[in-house]
Amino acid sequence: MRAATLLNRLLDLPGIRVEGVSLPGEGRLVLDVALRRRGLTCPLCGWRTRNRYDTRQSPSWWRHLDFGTAVVVVRAELRRLDCPHHGVVVEGVPFARHRSGFTRDFEDVTAFLTTKTDKTTIARFLRVDWDTVGRICERVVADSLDADRLDGLVNIGVDEISWRKHHNYLTLVTNHTSGKIVWGKTGKDTATMDAFFDELGADRSGRIEAVSMDMGPAFAKSVRTEGHAPQAVVCIDPFHAVKLVGEALDVERRKAWNELRQAGNPDAAKKFKGARWALLKNPTNLTDEQATTLRKLKRRGGDVWRAYTLKEAFREIFAGDLTTDQVAELIDRWISRASRSRLAAFVKAAKTIRKHRDGLLAAIRLNINNGRAEGLNNVVRLIIRRARGFHTAEAALALVMLTCGPITLQLPREQSP
Ligand SMILES: [Zn+2]
Known about the structure:
By secondary structure, this protein is an alpha+beta fold. The chain is built from 16 helices and 14 strands. The strands form 4 sheets. The protein has a 5-stranded mixed β-sheet, with helices on both faces. Helix 4 packs across helix 16 and helix 12 runs antiparallel to helix 13 (344-355). The chain is elongated and about 85 Å long. Residues 42, 44-45, 47, 83, 85-86 line the site of zinc ion.
C-alpha cells in the first residue's frame, strides 16, 4: 500500500484525499491533501456553489493530532467563492472550523483536556501556547453549545464571578433544573442581565417562575423590569448570606488581631492571624491542628468567640432540612441576637439579612437547591483560576461553558461519523 493511501485511512480526516507526504525536518510531517468534493461551501452559512471565484495564492495549513512524536500539518490549496450573503470568502473545509489553524480533531482533544487538567500540562503536552488554547475553547463552544439551552427555563440562578484580580467580571445564568450554566456575559451590572432577557425574549422570560441571586441590587432590578420577568420570585441563595456572615466574623477576627498587636502582644496576635481557617471552615472539616486552635479560642472567649458562635448558628439554619416556618423563626431570632451583639460587623450583617429575609425564605420554600448552586459556584471558581492566563474574558467564559454548560465533549474516536 502506498504511504499516502495508508495515511488517508489512518488519519481519517473527513472529505479529503492525501496526495503527498513529506518530512521537511524538525519533527514535522506535512500532508498535502485535496478536497474530495468539487463544489464550494461558504464557511459561514453553508451556501454551496460550483463556481469558484479564484484560487488562493498560497496553500492553507492546519495542525492535526501528532503522529508519534511528529507534529502533523495538513496542507491544502483552497479556492474562494462569492457567497450572496458573505461576499468573497475562502471555502470551508469539512475537517476544520472557520478561521482555525487546527483540525477539528485537534481542537476537540484540546477542549476536552482543558476541562480536565491544568494549564501547564496542556500547553506542554499539546505544544501550544495558552492563549491559543483559549481561542480553541471559544471556537468549540460556538460550535457545540446546545441550541435549545434557553428553552423551557423555569427556575434560574444568576451569579457574578470575578476573574483576573477582581477587575473583570462574568455574569453567569444557571438552569436550576438541569444544573447547567446556560448563558454568560462579561460585566456584572443591570445592563449585563438585561442582555440575557433581550436574548431570551418576552415569551420565554414570561414563563420564568423564580430567579435566585446574591444580595446585590443589580440583577434584581433587571428581573423586575417590565418585559423581563417581573412575575418571577426573587430568591437569595443562602450560601451568599452564609458567606456574608463569614466575612463579618473575619472582620471581628482582624480587629482582635490588630488590638493584640497594638497592645504589644505579638505572639498572641500571631496565633490569631493563623486562626482564620479554623474559624471560617465548617467545624466538621477541620484538621486536628485547626480543631485545637478552635478549642483554645473557645477557652479564651471574648468577641471573636461570640462572633464565631453567631456565624455557626447562622450556617446551621441552612444546613439541614428545616421547614420554611422553622427557618423563618430561626432567621428572626438570629437577626435579633446579632443586632444586640455589639459587634459592629454583625449588627451590619443583621441589617442586610433582614432586608433579604423574604428572598432567603423564598429560596427555602421553592426548594432552590442551595447545595447544588454552591457546588456549581465552586466548580466555576476552580475553572476561573485555570482561565486566569487567558487574555480575554471571552476565552474565560468559553472555558466555563465547556465545563459547566450544556455541551457534550467527545474525543475524535467517540464521534459517530
Ligand atoms: Zn455565506
